[in-house]
Amino acid sequence: MIPKLAGPLAILTASLVTAPAFATQSLYHTRLNAPAGGTLTLSTDVGSVSVVGGATSHVTFQLKAEGPRSNTTSFHIVARTTPEGVRISVQRHSRFFHGWFNWLHWFGRSHDHVQLSAAVPSAYRLDLRAAGGSIRVRNLNASVQASSSGGGANLQNITGAVDVHTAGGDIKARNIQGATRLSSSGGDVIISDSSGSLTLHAAGGDISIHNANGRVRASSSGGDIRAEMTAVHRISLHTAGGDITLLLPQNTHAAVKAEAVGGSVDCDFPLSTTQMSGNGALDGTIGGGGPQISLHSAGGDIHIAAQQ
């Protein structure tokens, strides 16, 4: 049976007691009024989060859990409408075998899977906090703020400011319009088809930018950076241990300063007022000058080329 909760406040403590123990599956569902122009604030200490925007005036939320631990686990779910929007929190409580069962949760085949999903008005802002699972957001005409302590993030079709951080997973974003900040402490950062400024950081992974039209500031502590620009604005790409590849439109006008400590720098564009320092640095202009491009690699090569 699927409990349906409606109204300004819904509080659910649900024990998943089903059989057989290794094939359990449960679903919880609630639908709340969504004040226009509000924010969905969702925090969870378990599971992955998926949010999709659409033509609706409500927030619909559901939780699905399956796996061997589900038959010994209860979820405390608080969902309520506020003047600012909708707030949802999810906490997991184990009823017994707490110590060694939690150990098995992280090791071996006893790992269970929890999915949280929400449908919201397309103009609803998001504030998402996931303790360990992944975050997926698509089809929004509003800002997104999100963080995951252990999973990755996937963002698609968003008009509005984006600020997303993951502690260990990859971040993938596509068709983002608005100022965007993406940061991963352990994974790659990949973004395509963006308009608006980009601020990107990967503490241990690579950064890939495709079809960007806006200011770009990207840094990696140990990976490669590859950027393909549809237009040239101010660009700053820095990596502590990888290569940098920058692809620019053929009619580019820019001022370039590039330095590869321990590597080489090459540029396919004709350069003027060029100052070279061996093969590892250059300071010059493309097409008579324009926005500043700053490139720095502490352990790799730098390559600047025209898009074909």
**Which residues form runs of ≥5 with pLDDT under 50?**
1-8, 12-24, 95-111
The largest beta-sheet arranges its strands as 2-7-8-4-10-12-14-16-18-20-22-28-24-27-26
Q: How does the major sheet shape up?
A: 15 strands, mixed
Q: What share of the residues lie within helices? A: under 10%
Task: Estimate nothing, just give the exact number of structural domains.
Answer: 2
Q: What's the helix count?
A: 1
What is the N-to-C order of secondary-structure elements (H for helix, E for strand)?
Answer: EEEEEEEEHEEEEEEEEEEEEEEEEEEEEE
Gross morphology: elongated
**Beta strand %:** over 45%
Derived from helix and strand composition plus strand pairing, the structural class reads: mainly beta
- Radius of gyration, rounded? 24 Å
Average pLDDT score:
86
What does this structure look like?
The chain is mainly β. The protein has 2 domains: 1-134, no CATH class; 170-308, no CATH class. 3% of the residues lie in helices and 60% in strands. It has 1 helix and 29 strands. The protein has one helix spanning 98-106, and strands at residues 4-6, 9-16, 25-33, 39-44, 48-54, 58-66, 73-82, 85-94, 113-121, 125-130, 135-140, 144-148, 153-159, 162-166, 171-177, 180-184, 189-195, 198-202, 207-213, 216-220, 225-229, 235-239, 244-248, 254-260, 265-267, 271-276, 281-286, 292-297, 302-306. The strands form 2 sheets. It has a 15-stranded mixed beta sheet, with no helix packed on it. A 14-stranded mixed beta sheet has the order 1-3-6-9-5-11-13-15-17-19-21-23-29-25, with no helix packed on it. A hairpin with a 2-residue loop joins strand 7 (73-82) and strand 8 (85-94). It starts with a strand and ends with a strand. Mean pLDDT is 86; it is low at 1-8, 12-24 and 95-111.
